Amino acid sequence: MNKDIICVRGAGDLATGVIQKLARSGFRVYAMEINQPTTIRRQVALSTAMFEEEVQIEDITAKRIPFSLTGLAECWRQGIVPIIEDKNGATISVIKPNAVVDAILAKKNLGTHRGMAPVTIALGPGFSAPEDVDVVVETMRGHRLGKMITRGSALPNTGTPGELGGQSALRVIHAPTAGVVEHLSRIGDYLDVNQPIFRIGEAIVKAPFAGVLRGLITAGMSVPQGMKAADIDPRKLEKEEVFSISDKARNLGGAVLEAYLYRKANYTKEG
Predict the structure, then answer these.
(1) Which of these, 142, 226, 246, lies nearest to 177 by C-alpha position?
(2) Which of 28, 74, 150, 187 fits a 20 to 30 Å CA distance from 1?
(3) How far is CA 57 from CA 1, 4, 9, 190, 243, in A?
(4) Per the omega criterion (within 30 degrees of 0), is the bond before 224 cis?
(5) CA 13, CA 45: separation in Å to the nearest integer?
(6) C-alpha 145 chain-centroid distance
(7) How many CA atoms lie within 13 A of 59 on its CB side?
(8) Are 151 and 175 in contact (CB under 8 A)?
């Protein structure tokens, strides 16, 4: 195993593609998450370990552990990706990773900066290289997806999901009111138009069109009004397409691996 330690902030579905690529490449990878992640594509997100303690996505196993250097080392010895609760990156100065990757995908910078590690990489809008981080990775679907940006920023957030199967804005469903989520369908179900998906109090949220339920926020979670809570794909997807890491996540994983190796070589030359 490579001795380099890489910290990934966030472990959602896109971050999971990054974690898989780095772990497969032999790096000592760990992820930082909030206590109750709001990931909706939970079936392909290592952040699910925050609720279930341990989860396996394809060939990568992640385990939620209390923060300790010995705990991290033991996970790496077992080939497990440790996930620790750390919202603000307070443990980074103790662990001293070789790189920090911001894969939160918050569309804004939640505190990642170049002083955190010798190499810093961020996914998506909200960051500028080299002011905030060394490298920004483009996350917008299309020709630029996965592009390594060493000067400048990713394309701005449009506020509208990319089009799939002729649907765009309607694909992502938001909580109509604040309250506790109760599931009425399961991820992977094929839904007819107006079929119930979830309930919050007296409000029942239904499918706006026919398609596969690809994402659904954790049951029992208390959410504010307007929070992203479900994702429907109008295409007739195979089971593998719903329950395996997406093409976009794999693309971003490869881009981060490239960015780290590129920046490390450049950093070594400069140093």
Answers:
(1) 226
(2) 150
(3) 20, 23, 18, 22, 9
(4) no
(5) 4
(6) 16
(7) 6
(8) no
- pLDDT tens, residue by residue, 127-183: 999 999 999 999 998 999 999 999 999 999 876 666 565 555 688 999 999 999 999
Instruction: Write the DSSP string, 218-240.
Output: PTT-EE-TT-EEEEEE-S---HH
Pairing of strands 60-64, 211-216: unpaired
Please provide the CATH number assigned to the domain covering 169-234. 2.40.50.100
Do the beta carbons of residue 211 and residue 234 sit within 8 Å? yes
5-157+247-270: what fold? Rossmann fold (3.40.50)
Backbone angles phi, psi at 169, to 5 degrees: -60, -35
243 secondary structure, DSSP code: S
Q: Where are the domains positioned within the chain?
A: 5-157+247-270, 169-234
- State residue 164's pLDDT score: 61
